[in-house]
Amino acid sequence: MPILEIDHLQKAYGETHILHDINISMEPGDFLVLVGPSGCGKSTLLNCIAGLEPITGGTIRIGGGDVTGVSPKDRDIAMVFQSYALYPTMSVARNITFGMQVRGVDKATQAAKLAEVARQLQIEPLLARKPGQLSGGQRQRVAMGRALVRDPKLFLFDEPLSNLDAKLRVSMRTEIKKLHQDLNASIVYVTHDQIEAMTLATKIVVMKGGVIQQIGTPAEIYNRPANMFVADFMGSPAMNLIPAQVRSEGGQTRIEIAREGAAPLVITDPVARELPSQIVLGVRPEDIHEATGSAHLPRLAQGAGGDVMIEIVEPAGADTFAVTHLGGKPVTARLRAESAVRARALFPLAFDLSKVSYFSPESGERLN
Ligand SMILES: Nc1ncnc2c1ncn2[C@@H]1O[C@H](COP(=O)(O)OP(=O)(O)OP(=O)(O)O)[C@@H](O)[C@H]1O
User: In this structure, which residue's CA is closest to atom 31 in ligand 1?
Assistant: First the structure.
C-alpha cells in the first residue's frame, strides 16, 4: 500500500491557481524529492501534505487513510523546516523531548528516545547547549532529532540544507542519505537544487509552474527526460539542446546540424525513427566523445559526428570541457582530462547515439 497518495490535487489562492492536477503515489521507504525552480509550487505542495495549507480540490492519503480534512497534528507526520524552528530558550535536549512531553509520553521513554537519536545524529556532547550556541549544521541535526523522536509515518523536509555553506551541505546530504538507509524512513523532501535531488532521491518529481513535468527514478529523469524543461533543469552542465533537421533514408535516420563556416554536420542514427523534419537533439556533455581512436567507444555508431571548431577549452581537473557552436547553440562536450583538444582548432567529436534524446521544437516533448 502506498504511504502517500495524492489524487487530482488542486490548490488556488483566490483566483490564482498554484498547483494543477497533482497526482503522486509514494511507496513506504521511498525518498521522494520535489524539485523545480523558485515559485514552481513545491513548498506549497509540501505544506498541503502537512496540512498547513488547505487544498482546493482532490485528496491526500497518508498510510491509506484520507487526511484531506485532518489537522497537521493528527496526520502522523514530522516536518523539518528550512529555518529549523528551534525554541531558542530551551536546551537541545528539551527541544528534542518537548513534543513528546506535550503528547504525554512518559519520562523513561522520552529519555530513551533522546539517547537514541542523540547517538544516531552524534549530538550527545551538545544536549545541554542552547540553539544559539550551535553551528548551522548542528542546529540542522537538532531539528532532525526532533522529527526522528516522533517516529512518524512520513517525514517532510523543506529545503533543510539551504542555509548551510556548500561544504557542510554536502556532508549533511550524506548524513541524511545514511539516515534514510538506516531507518528505511519514508521522506518527502523539497529542494531547488537538482544535484541534491539526484543524490538523495529514490524518486524525483520535477515541477514547473505548478504542474508535474515528470516523475521517475534519478536515472530515468537523467537518461530519458520527458521534455526539454526537465532535460535542461536536471544535470550540470546542462544537456545540450541542438536544433536539427531530419531526413529518413533507407531505414536510417539522417540528422543534419548546422555548423559555422562549414557544411552541416550529418550524423546517422542507425535506427529508423518516425521524427518530424525539425527536431531538437538533446545530448549530455559526457555523451559527446573524441571521435579519433574510438576503439574504446564501441557503441559509437559510424558517422555519429565530425570535425567541429572548438571555441573554448576549460580544464576542470578530472575532465576537460570543450565548447563549440552547433545548430546556432553553444554545445559543451565533457572530454577526458588528457584530451589533446585545443581552442580555435578543428576537433573530431562524435555523439553516443544510444544516449541521445529527440524533442519536438514546438511542444518540447520527448519524441524517442
Ligand atoms: N499565500 C499566498 N497567496 C498567494 N500566492 C501565494 C501564496 N503563497 C505562495 N504563493 C505563490 O505560489 C507560488 C508557489 O510558491 P511556493 O513557495 O510553493 O514555490 P516554491 O517552488 O517552493 O519556491 P521557492 O523555492 O522560492 O520557495 C508562487 O508563485 C507564490 O508567489
Answer: 39
Could you identify the atom of ligand 1 that is nearest to the CA of residue 207?
Answer: 21
4-233 belongs to CATH 3.40.50.300:
yes
Q: In what order do the strands lie in the sheet with 187-191?
A: 77-80, 154-158, 187-191, 31-35, 203-208, 211-216
Spacing, Cα 147 to ligand 1 middle (Å): 24
Domain boundaries, given as residue ranges, for the chain: 4-233, 240-359
178's CB contacts (< 8 A; 6+ apart) are none
pTM for this entry: 0.91
Ligand 1 pocket, mutate which of 10, 42, 192, 213 (most atoms under 8 A from CB):
42
Tell me which residue has its CA closest to atom 26 in ligand 1. Answer: 38
pLDDT by 10-residue block (mean), the chain, 368 residues:
97 96 98 96 96 97 96 92 86 93 92 92 92 88 90 92 84 89 93 95 98 98 98 96 88 86 84 90 95 52 75 95 96 94 93 93 97
